[in-house]
């Protein structure tokens, strides 16, 4: 398969139960794993219109393998005093956008 710049299908994970004090830098450092050997290409904390964190984020990895490792190794890990959960980002189909198919919409309400 041709190498791409990351962000392909399966490279993104959804992170929930974040501390409202967590910045994307904190999240990115944490999501690289205990040995800092997973390659995070993007970390985006979702915010309200006011700018306050919603306590959830999307993290993108360079490879689907790193994303799967993050789900396996970082779910229920502690970041800034809270146990975060990590799961596959189901909202992102092949073309991106947050359309949500087959009743899959509203996936960002978890917490």
Kindly describe this structure.
There is one protein chain. The chain is α+β, with helices and mostly antiparallel strands and 111 residues long. The protein is 17% helix and 27% strand. The model is unreliable at 92-111 (pLDDT under 50).
Q: In short, what is this structure?
A:
17% of the residues lie in helices and 27% in strands. The protein is built from two helices and six strands.
| Oligomeric state of shown chains | single chain
Q: Summarize the biggest pleated sheet.
A: 4 strands, antiparallel
Number of strands: 6
Instruction: Tell me, briefly, the overall form.
Output: globular
Helix share bin: 10-25%
Query: Helices and strands: which structural class?
Result: alpha+beta
Radius of gyration: 13 Å
Instruction: Give the end-to-end Cα distance, rounded to a whole number of Å.
Output: 36 Å
What's the arrangement of strands in the largest beta sheet? 2-3-1-6
Element order, helices and strands?
A: EHEEHEEE
**Strand portion:** 25-35%
Mean pLDDT score, rounded?
A: 83
Poorly predicted runs: 92-111
Number of helices: 2
Task: Label this structure with key terms.
27% strand, disordered C terminus, 111 residues, 6 strands, two-stranded antiparallel sheet, alpha+beta, globular
């Amino acid at each position: 398969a041709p190498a791409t710049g990351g962000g392909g299908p399966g490279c993104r994970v959804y992170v929930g139960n974040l501390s409202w004090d967590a910045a994307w830098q904190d999240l990115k450092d944490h999501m690289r794993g205990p040995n800092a050997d997973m390659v995070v290409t993007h970390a985006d904390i979702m915010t309200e219109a006011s700018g306050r964190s919603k306590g959830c984020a999307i993290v993108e990895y360079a490879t689907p393998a790193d994303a799967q490792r993050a789900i396996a190794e970082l779910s229920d890990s502690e970041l800034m005093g809270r146990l975060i959960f990590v799961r596959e980002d189901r909202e992102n189909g092949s073309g991106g956008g947050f359309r949500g198919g087959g009743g899959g919409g509203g996936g960002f309400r978890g917490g």
